[in-house]
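Model the whole thing, not chain by chain.
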Amino acid sequence: MTSTNLSQDSHCSRREMVASLAGGLGLVGLSGMLQGQTVKASSPVLDFPAKTKSVIFLFMTGGPSHLDLLDPKPALHKYAGQRPKSTQLRTERVTGGLLPSPWKFKSYGQSGTEVSELLPGIGSCVDDICLIRSMYTFNPTHTPARNLMHSGNIASTRPTLGAWASYGLGTENEDLPAFVVLSHPRSGKLWRAGFLPSEHQGTLFDQQETSPDKMIRYLRNAHLDRAVQQKQVHFLQQLNQVHLRARDTSPFLEARIKAMETAFRMQFAASEAFDTSHEPQYVRSQYGENPFANSCLLARRLVERGVRYIHVFSGPGQPWDDHDKIKENLEGRCPDMDTAVAALIRDLKQRGLLDETLVVWTGEFGRTPVSEAGDGRDHNPYGFSVWMAGGGVKGGMVLGSTDEFGFQAVENRINVHDLHATILHLMGLDHEKLTYRYAGRDFRLTDVEGRVVNEILT
Amino acid sequence: MRWVLGVAVVCMGNAVLFAQDSEEEIFFEKKIRPILVDHCYKCHSKDAKSLKGGLLLDSRQGLRKGGDSGPALLPGNADGSLLLEALRYQSLEMPPSGKLPESVIGDFKVWITRGAYDPRDVELDKNSESKTINWSESKQWWAFQPVKRYSVSKKSDMPWVKKKTDAFIFRKLQSKGLRPSKPATRRTLIRRASFDLTGLPPSFQQTESFVNSKDPDAYEILIDRLLASSHYGERWGRHWLDVARWAEDNPTSEATNPPYPDSWKYRDWVIQAINDDVPYDQFIRMQLAADLLPDFDRKDLPALGYIGTGPVYHKDPRLSRHVIETFASDDWDERVDAVSRGLLGLTVGCARCHDHKFDPISVQDYYALAGVFSSSWEVNRPLVDMAQDEEERLIWAQDRIPRLKLAIDLLGLPATPSTPEQIDALKRELESLEKTPYLDVPMARAVYDAGIWIDGSDPDFTWMDIRIGEARDLPIFIRGNVSNPGEIVPRRFLSVFSEGDDQKFDRGAGRLELANSILEKAGPLAARVIVNRVWGWHFGNPLVRTPSNFGVQGEKPTHPELLDDLSARFVENRWSLKWLHREIMLSSAYQQSSSYHETAVAIDPDNKWLWRMTPRRLDFESWRDALLVVTDSLDTTFGGPSLELDMEDNFRRTVYAKVSRSQVNPLMRMYDFPDATEHSPSREITTTPLQQLFVLNSQFMVDRAEELAESVRSMKDSQAAIEFLFRKVLGISPDENQRELSQSFVQELNQSGTEDVWAVYCQALLGTNAFIFVE
């Protein structure tokens, strides 16, 4: 892909480019001249004015319980232990009677949105948050449901949301990838490019690590110091120049020379961007000291540096999969998440970035109001909660509702395709026009579905 | 109910339509039309941006005709009307934005019961009806025609035309105002041919002796030597493994879709078959139906891995029959895709929900093929001979044992309604199955004829219902939804290739009949597809640039007569791939230089007309293998179980690296290795900074550089060392410019007191464009 695009774009600027290459490292470089064009060459222009430049997607792997966090259901107390007819829905596991939430819900902010007492931090931000209580999806198991949430399809093959964003919009910082993933490295393939050109796949940084050169493979050379490596790269590029000149022109050779230049600079750009030790202690303590908190802080640093799409996983495995012991699990898990997410929203807002950054918080599905194993909840694709903040969505808003027990979304039902359509819309892309021709068809992130949820847009 | 008219109206029929301001009309205009307009037209009217479900609700005719799921309403029968079911959220859930108030749903019930008066009378737009396939017209499509030879005149004034293929190319070039490039140098040619056929670089000595050979047949001898090398199969087998989306595990690899520890046997079978030049038609027959061929030898059982090692979903038995059937139908869909795109260049998968929008493939065709796979049980089969009943017992046991173990684990959990008796029964069954003879004999991942059903009789636990000796014809799943089955379609081949009546498959699952249909009824297409792929692997671009789509949406061939003629002769030459390689590689077109030419580029920037050889980046396997070769590290052991690519002491060829669907090796992915979860038509070559970080900083590159530096460390003369390293790595002597740059770099490093100067130098040399580039 890169080479095809280069062949179209590089004609006029080739001479200049070779001249600048000959100057070696440290000069202006090629970034401005080439990459911006090449990355975007195959992409559609904006369909609407973009309301957000960047997306931070916070993914709570496992399916967090909306009933204990975001969607209060007093009826669960009233009918505790019973199994009313409307709750006879098949889920993955065998379930029993209704399980009331062990926590109280409180009204927060001017909007008075009710949020669980487990989430005081998020509660304090509700006036910046648009809470959707009527989400639903189409599959009750983790992998297919996660694929749905990330790529709009149950298969493990389709391009993911971040890859579509990169494909549609390209990057604003040539020294960093457009689609950054902060995850435990064994979390699976949820940042694949699928059939899109592979340059759009997410670049994984290991969130369990704090030092940048451990977060990304091959970021640092363990043997050479910078000065020697600079000489080495300079020599290598000279050989490449000689080779290129003998061939007059070759988009591939030029692209690879440029990629070497970017790689060399990226070592330092990424090292700087991914090093949270540059942040003052008071900022770091607002977020907290754990891998997820560090990822949230990094997400803000990356937004500042023009990264398009940052996908943060809540930890290794599927932490929010509370089939049992939901009380002690959530009590243990919520504070770190809540503190970090609230700090992120406040921090973005204070820096004036929240208006152009969309923060999305979701899992692959919610959990059942009926109990599993007496003290847990099963997977629930029929109804759950998602929230968004910043970048073009209304703060202090609640959209939709589930039934009286929180099992099924009933009013203003929003599915994963609608969510995707809305996120793309906020980035300035029409989900029906953002297509890629593959295997004889024009594919979309939203397949043949999806409705932009206009009600929540500013 | 205030509707006194009741049933009477239904009997009155059309008479109602003429009543002015009738109560029905008022009711319709007040209660029904506004709801339809507000909640339905957006997706179900002729003005809808995209019509959903093929259903039009903006006319009486549309409602009554219905969409993909059948008529939307039966006048007079509200409870039997799909429209009401959907409004009640019973089957479909409409409108999707939320259930309408009960009072509105009540209005609709009344309206339908009373006969569904509807004044919106229109002629249904022909275009909005699903298009029916015009079979006789679509049979004329170029790709379905018999392949035929063309005659070309042999003119003595065309010395460029060495092979028949050249004649077609020359004529095209002339017509486009282009000329072929001059022949490549022998130095370029040996590097090109060696990488192309074996995926390995020639040594400097081999290069020199070829360059200096006086034998006019030296090139032909070279090609024959390379084709005879066992490395040839490793290279071309790997091309096939892309088509076959071969891997050794599953996207999630859980209890019901564990990894395939014997999968490497398929990989080795492919490599051996390619080395043996097994005719392509036989090669395909064996991969679909080796076990059904006369003279079947169990050593060919791994061939069935084309189907048997395909990706499978995890099917947690606690899920409903609906969900499990969805997963199973996705598995079958993948097989339809692998066979149709892989072997026929047809996107049959597009017909899963509706007739193919462009190609003559009906939804019936899709389910007729899918039925072959719902009748093919993917199992491990023994590689030692045994009686049929013994084998059936054995494969039953090895398939059933892990399912029983899972069931016992799951049903043993608290909160499951199972009784101790149920669990005991499962345990007893497990115990007895574990005594099945031959459980430990060598196995291969394969298929066995058996129908696959999903048993949903237990509401809490869904079992796979596998019936040996039966085949399962599938119903059409309307819009791909397994809960919405339509007519049952017998297993058979694609209608567009049938003469007269469709012939049903009736031998077991129909795998052999499918293979024979592909190679005979659709033989011309199958031949074109493989010839086109091979052409693309040699030249960088195939003649049909969408190698897995020969349908209407695909590209047309750049050289249709060439493709036809070559395909016809390929079939005549007993589908021999080695014959095809020679035919292509001995042509002048293949032996051209890859030099840039400004005028030619202006006319044909993509080199569609082959005015030169397209220069290329090495693919990942060749690049890594070449790095091992030039640093004297390559372990050339043939075949066997895979090794993790990143293992420190893995010096084997990259084709023997483990290929995973669940944990795709990051390095392979970074270098454009295809995702083995689905068929890969061709590799997309990208150039990214992350690849260059690997070049700069990875331990693998550092080790290779040190390995190489070792060989010059004892040399006193840096000139000699530079000469040696250029020959070793790039197969050339450095020119003056390269020599000077090298000298001054080495000097600079020495002066700055850098340790291990030669390793730093070697790593740069290994990272050059010249090394990864083939001309």
